[in-house]
Amino acid sequence: MQKGDDLDPKGLIFEAYRIDGISGPECRTIFLDWALSVPGTHVPADLIAALLQRYEGAYPDHPMTQTLKEGLERIGQPRRRGGWRSRPRDA
Questions:
Q1: In the 8-state DSSP scheme, what is residue 86?
Q2: Cβ neighbours of residue 84 under 8 Å, at least 6 residues apart?
Q3: Distance of CA 13 to CAs 27, 32, 83, 85, Å?
């Protein structure tokens, strides 16, 4: 695997798996940076699933694997719309 492919354009996830002793919070920061760099033409859930397929077998207990799993779960959860749109209004 080389840095800079379609799944990981900047090689951030690739490098995270190579950092000895990386923590969960550090992985979440890297994941956020990765997510912000995903082109709008891609479906993030598909990319995360492909990254998990790539790395989970070799690194099942790595904090980045857990972070990717959490990211995939959160994408699938419906979000509550807040603010004025969620409040009933008088006609």
A1: G
A2: none
A3: 9, 11, 35, 37
Sequence-separated (6 or more) residues with CB below 8 Å from residue 89: none
Q: State in Å, rounded, how far the first CA of the chain is from the last one.
A: 59
- The two tokens of residue 18 are 């190579």
Provide the whole-model pTM: 0.78
Q: pLDDT tens for the chain, 91 residues: list them.
A: 456 788 998 999 999 999 999 999 999 999 999 999 888 888 889 999 999 999 999 999 999 999 999 999 988 666 566 666 666 777 6
Asked whether the beta carbons of 49 and 87 are under 8 A apart, the reply is no
